[in-house]
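Q: What residues go here?
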């Protein structure tokens, strides 16, 4: 399933096993086989959302390459500040999974990507636990800017939702993982606590919500819940 990921180094394998153990996975096998990419598993619930999904405006770029360039240059993004550094998307088009993260931290912005530092290391372990490496993922943020102490207003959320929906449509991922509360409120119209445990659709893409990796670093006991979310993401619709 993972292409190059099939050839793990000893260190990479140890990292994946460590994530599984921390997430509460205490057996190597289960009674029934898991069809990760097959169409045999039942879906707990599927919700299709239309809340806050305005049609993309004509001014937004029409290709992923142009959209990414626009994110790096336009002054009209939510929470944009003059001369502020931006945490820009990384990854490939038509990725196995797209991660849409909550607002970046100063460390993320300093590295110029949506998730950085120890949170990025944990993100890579989470991806590896479901059979992918970071080269098979597309990672973006709900906004490119760090804004300390700011809670997104209703207008900000609507603007972010419009951009995020266009971003998902252009990136064409196979799956979408929402990391944190703000992406859930923007795209699903509900907080993370309500959105978790369900399968959603965003621009026709299967979507699941879970905790941001930096939250899991502070509260490692929630890794078991995050593991359930990852399993739900990987199940296929009948």
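A:
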């Amino acid at each position: 399933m993972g292409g190059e990921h099939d050839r793990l180094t000893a260190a990479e394998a140890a990292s994946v096993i460590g994530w599984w153990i921390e997430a509460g996975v205490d057996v190597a096998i289960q009674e029934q086989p898991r069809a990760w990419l097959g169409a045999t598993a039942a879906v707990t619930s599927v919700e299709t959302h239309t809340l806050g999904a305005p049609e993309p405006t004509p001014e937004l770029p029409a290709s992923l390459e142009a959209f990414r360039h626009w994110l790096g240059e336009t002054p009209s993004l939510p929470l944009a500040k003059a001369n502020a550094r931006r945490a820009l998307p990384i990854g490939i088009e038509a990725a196995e999974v797209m991660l849409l993260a909550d607002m970046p931290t100063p460390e993320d912005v300093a590295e110029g990507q949506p998730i950085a530092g120890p949170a990025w290391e944990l993100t890579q372990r989470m991806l590896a636990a479901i059979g992918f490496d970071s080269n098979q993922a597309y990672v973006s943020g709900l906004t490119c800017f760090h804004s300390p102490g700011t809670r997104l207003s209703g207008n900000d959320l609507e603007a972010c939702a419009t951009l995020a929906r266009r971003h998902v449509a252009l990136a064409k991922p196979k799956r979408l993982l929402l990391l944190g509360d703000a992406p859930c409120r923007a795209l699903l119209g509900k907080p993370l606590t309500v959105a978790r445990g369900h399968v959603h659709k965003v621009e026709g893409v299967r979507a699941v919500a879970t905790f941001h990796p930096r939250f899991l670093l502070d509260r490692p006991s929630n890794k078991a819940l995050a593991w359930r979310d990852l399993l739900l993401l990987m199940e296929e619709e009948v």
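A: Context that may help when evaluating the design: The first strand starts at residue 46 and ends at 48. The chain has a mean pLDDT of 84.
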